[in-house]
Protein: Oligopeptide transport system ATP-binding protein
Organism: Proteiniclasticum ruminis
Amino acid sequence: MENKKEVLLDLKNVKTYFPVKKGIMKKTVGHVKAVDDISIEIYKGETLGLVGESGCGKTTLGKSILQLIPATGGEMNYNFDGNYKNLRTLPKKEMDLARKRMQIVFQDPHSSLNPSFTIFQSLSDPLKKFGVEKKEDRRKIIGDLLESVNMRAEYMDRYPHEFSGGQRQRIGIARALSVNPEIIVCDEAVSALDVSIQAQVLNLLKKLKEERDLTYIFITHDLSVVEYISDRIAVMYLGRIVELADADELYKNKLHPYTKALLSAIFVAEPDRKTKRIILEGDVPSPMNPPSGCSFHPRCQYCMEVCKKERPELKKYVIEGSDHYVACHLVEQEMKKDA
Ligand code: SF4
């Protein structure tokens, strides 16, 4: 990462709530707060890892950024060649064009490729949509794309069932690249693959990022994968970011009790990291009715009275020269003592 970072996407207080309806009249009786007041700057050329248990809101945040799920509040200011515009208020025509800049790679490439279409047909659609009219031009582009993901150009005339899971995921990546995006949301993109194939696809994503100056938002529950691929990592719990730091810094100086518990699972599998497994008690509470104060408090072994009443803000600390953001009363108290 360069020192001078350009912000590609600036999220301010983003919320994505889903109404919960009941009865014959379908009356709204509450809201599931899947993404609850998230502010973060995403830098051009970085890989931002988003981690957390299932249901923490990471996929909803990714899809909200791509406008596949409409956010219900906040701003998403996208850097259109130096001119920031809020994606949420962009006129439809402009948003359709903006989609070219933002693509997604899904977990299950099989379900995202139409089984009755050849790879050429599947990859042709986005190209046609963005103005590549001539079939021969599309064949050339698709052939080059397949080669860029280490597949043969002639594979474009085959059907999805003729490929392995790893190959299908590479085709999914080629499709995302077909419109020359700036940012790709990788939603559990390697989670369905065998470990050896995961490594190949992760290395391919790293190579493509360098070659094409891409920015990734990498959503995963796999903490080894996120450490390997990410420049920065945001840890989410119940729709909020509870800790955010450079990947090396986070793994070295994890501060939030939830992050410590989460990471202790992989540290046990790697004995040289010498950390005891922290077992979290209880389930993730319902995002429809999150606990008061710090939403992690019912599961936190360090819970204090203040934690039950006041929601901790995500605060910045500079540790060994690196910006480190944490939302925790205990960390705040410890930092004050050390100051
Ligand atoms: Fe635990 Fe309190 Fe920190 Fe929440 S704010 S993580 S309950 S110590």
Residues 195-212 form the longest helix (18 residues). The chain has two domains: 7-101+181-338, 113-180.
